[in-house]
Amino acid sequence: MEGVLLLNKPAGMTSHDCVAKMRRLAKTKKVGHTGTLDPDVTGVLPICIGRATKIVEYLTASSKTYEAEVTIGFSTTTEDASGEIVERKPVDRLIKSEEVENVLSSMVGTLEQTPPMYSAVKINGKKLYEYARAGIEIERPSRTITIHDFVLLGDVKNGNNNVTFRFRVTCSKGTYVRTLAVMIGEQLGYPAHMSHLVRTKSGVFDLDDCMTFEEIEKSIEDNTFHNSLISIGEALKDLPKLIIHDNLAEKVKNGAVLELPNEFEQLEIGAPIAVYNKNSHCIAIYAKHPTKQTLMKPIKVLLI
User: Fold this and answer.
1) Same domain for 195 and 69?
2) pLDDT tens-place string over residues 142-161
3) Fewer CB near the last or first residue (10 Å), C or N of the chain?
4) Which residues of 269-279 are buried (b: 16+ CB within 10 A; e: fewer)?
């Protein structure tokens, strides 16, 4: 059993919980996820099973799309609805859609973002949330993120000293959407937090194609679970693709260095190339050789 399973992650479970459950359901230890979602967050969580665990890093690197709700008027320790309130400032003016749209559009492009204290980022070998739970706040290095698209969804709702609205954002790996909610609040002049979040897309994978745990369990009972798995080759379809003949496939199986085809000469050193056999099975990941410009070397051999 191998391939990528598209899970519609439920609220209340960590990504690690989802992997542990899939290990039990699929009866294999070779299971991994491709991008952590907080327990309260739902949506697309690609799960790699069997040999597909070898390609986790190539799926993790993709951009993600989220739909979120922001509440303006108070902030929390965790920057989302699960935390304790740390600052409250009643919204004493009308915030219009045009003002929110201007803020969102101003954030498109490259941004510097500081990871929240309640996150899994490691500092000195310890996760930030471990420091936070011990009541210790430490300096966190900022990271560069990219916002590809940022749009307001629906109306801005004013009332009860708070303001709420929804947005859709497509962003690079490593972006904390709850921190984006706080940044939006700062530009509007109020404390804020993310009150709801769902990941609707991860790389090429869409929420509409995801399965719930209930649907997965039913497919296992019906012996149709294998039909739910996306092949390694299909999962990597966004990578540059090279199809080779059988003789060369044998060399690939043994980890041979190959000549770099002309069409890949402009790739950056280290950029992955998915290598397929004539049966359309992805058998390896190669990359441009770091010192020999006319060659490419294997990064991962996927053949058993």
Assistant:
1) yes
2) 889 999 999 999 999 998 89
3) C
4) eeebbbbbbee
Catalytic residue among 17, 38, 155, 238: 38
Residue in 18, 20, 6 with CA at minimum distance from that of residue 204? 6
Domain at 286, CATH number: 2.30.130.10
So what's the pLDDT on residue 304? 59
What pTM value is reported for the model? 0.88
CATH number at residue 90: 3.30.2350.10
pLDDT over threshold 80, residue 119: no
- Same domain (yes/no): 265, 195: no
Backbone angles phi, psi at 130, to 5 degrees: -70, -40
The per-residue b/e assignment along 95-111, b for 16 or more CB within 10 angstroms, e otherwise, is beeeebbebbeebbeeb
Give how many domains the chain has, as a whole number.
3
Give whole-number Cα distances, 133 to 77, 91, 126, 127, 137, in Å: 10, 30, 12, 10, 9
What phi, psi does 224 have (nearest 5°)? -120, 10
219 pLDDT more than 70: yes
**CA quadruple 84, 87, 92, 93: dihedral sign:** negative
Beta-bridged to residue 159, according to DSSP, are 162
Respond yes or no: is residue 238 known to be catalytic: no
Residue 93 tokens, joined: 């003016």
Kindly report, residue by residue over 284-294, the tens digit of the pLDDT.
Answer: 999 999 888 88
Q: How far is residue 255's CA from residue 249's CA, in Å, rounded to a whole number?
A: 10
Range of the domain at 268: 240-301
Mean pLDDT of 180-193: 96
